[in-house]
Amino acid sequence: MKIEKSSGNVYADIGVANPEQMLRKALIVAQISQVITYSEDRISRAVGILGLSETELKELLHGHFHDYREADLVEYLEKLHQDKSFAGAKLGK
């Protein structure tokens, strides 16, 4: 088995188009996930805040964010930060 040193961006390493953008999106989604955590109650509240279906939110949190615009992901994160039901949640940078 051949081992190659990573560039630091897994998306670049595997040849994904726009690897820098994909990495930024992944980092935003990771922050969204940190704020929500995976309890059903919090997911239900987040669905209402973000205007996504539960299926869409769960798919997003499981890495299916390629078709989302970066600006939309940032907006989702900002909406969660502004909502009092997520006060005290670990907020992303």
TrEMBL record:
Source superkingdom: Bacteria
InterPro entries assigned: HigA2-like_HTH, Lambda_DNA-bd_dom_sf
Residues in HigA2-like helix-turn-helix domain copies: 10-80
Gene3D superfamilies xrefs: lambda repressor-like DNA-binding domains
Protein's recorded name: XRE family transcriptional regulator
